[in-house]
Write a structure and sequence with these properties.
By secondary structure, the protein is α/β, with parallel strands linked by helices. Helices cover 40% and strands 22% of the residues. It is built from 18 helices and 15 strands. It has a 6-stranded mixed β-sheet with strand order 6-7-8-3-9-10, with helices on both faces. The longest helix is centred in the middle third of the chain and has 18 residues, at 169-186.
């Protein structure tokens, strides 16, 4: 589907961003480009839709040398999703999604059907969201629409440049899950740039590790965990942590480090707005010293909104917690026994340090089990 042949990119100031790159992305494959800042991963991806032109070498998309294709025509047939979303604020959600199909000459009825189909695919009710504007959506919802816009014209190839990097951890996990589900259903060819190894391990069929403008290693997630090429790759993926047994992992190894939190004087209306923006259904309540006081769920706000005004008035204070140095096995026990979806992580002074969620727990332990089984 996408083939690089001896591709090099040198900028006018002499910087060699990419050097003699050779890579073949198969049709229907999800490939992640990852590496330290300045390694050439974003430049590599942007050369596919000619946002950057290679200095030498050839790039083929579906067998065609892209240097012979009009750039506008090329881009209309490639989906593109970026971190900043890039929705047009003066257009409705439907108008944003149908933009490329309109440019391609689709009739109105076909465009409308496609918009509704895509919105339903990510659980956004067309009747509710079709005529809204981007400013009326949360960050996570806007990013969903950005992905839908890339899918709208049914392209075979989609490029994604750190699309979830600006979102909070819980929203990012949710969108990763949705993207994985969509990819399993639609079988699109995806080239995905990320700096997050956990994201790459979760989403990719193959991971391309880059360093100094060159491909350093290409492998499946399992192969990368079992056989990192050298110490650079081992350190970059955190090999020691990922292949450790569950008994040796600590809560700090798997916790989300930036959970959604607010002070007790925070108004209920503000809390609702924050939950919608961050796409979560609860807020952890902390004092000025970041000590955990309690939790407020969307359901609690619903019950108390008529008679209460602040989080402090409706928060639940009887919380199960863990500390960062405690074993993951203890977190598992507490979450199972309490039937908890998440578990706050606090230090000895009860200052909030993170959050363990079912998703982060299962994802880490499944990779650990796979790595252990493969190296046994």
């Amino acid at each position: 589907m996408v083939r690089f042949e001896n591709v090099t990119k040198v900028y006018p100031d002499g910087t060699k961003a990419v050097a003699e790159l050779n890579l073949h992305v198969e049709r229907g494959e999800f490939v992640c480009l990852i590496g330290p800042s300045g390694c050439g991963k974003t430049t590599t991806m942007k050369m596919i839709n000619r946002l950057h032109e290679p200095t030498s070498g050839k790039i083929y998309v579906d067998g065609r040398d892209i240097s012979t294709v009009n750039p506008v025509e090329l881009r209309r047939n490639i989906g593109y999703v970026i971190q900043q979303v890039g929705l047009f604020p003066h257009l409705t959600i439907a108008q944003n999604i149908e933009l490329v199909p309109r440019l391609l000459g689709w009739d109105k009825a076909r465009r409308a059907r496609r918009v509704d189909e895509l919105l339903q695919m990510v659980n956004l009710d067309p009747a509710v969201y079709r005529d809204r504007y981007p400013r009326e959506l949360s960050g996570g919802q806007q990013q969903r629409v950005g992905v839908l816009r890339a899918l709208a014209a049914e392209p075979d190839l989609i490029l994604m440049d750190e699309p979830f990097g600006a979102l909070d951890p819980i929203t990012r996990e949710t969108l990763q899950d949705e993207l994985k589900r969509l990819q399993a259903k639609l079988k699109k060819t995806v080239v995905f740039v990320t700096h997050d190894m956990d994201e790459a391990l979760k989403l990719a069929d193959r991971i391309v590790v880059m360093k100094d403008g060159r491909i350093h290693q290409v492998a499946t997630p399992d192969e990368l965990l079992r056989n990192p090429k050298d110490e650079f790759v081992a350190q970059f993926i955190g090999r020691d942590r990922l292949v450790a047994s569950a008994e040796t992992l600590t809560v700090a190894d798997i916790m989300i480090r930036n959970p959604v939190a607010a002070p007790p004087h925070f108004g209920l209306a503000e809390a609702v707005a924050t939950m919608r923006k961050r796409r979560v259904n609860s807020v952890l309540v902390v004092d000025e010293e970041e000590r955990l006081l309690g939790i407020v769920t969307a359901r609690a706000i619903e019950r108390g909104i008529a008679s209460h005004r602040t989080l402090g008035e409706v928060m639940e204070t009887n919380l199960a917690t863990v500390t960062p140095d405690q074993p993951v096995t203890l977190a598992i026990q507490r979450m199972l026994l309490g039937r908890l979806e998440f578990l706050p992580v606090v230090d000895e002074q009860r200052r909030l340090k993170g959050l363990v969620t079912n998703t982060s727990l299962v994802g880490t332990l499944s990779r650990t089990a796979e790595a252990r089984g493969a190296t046994a």
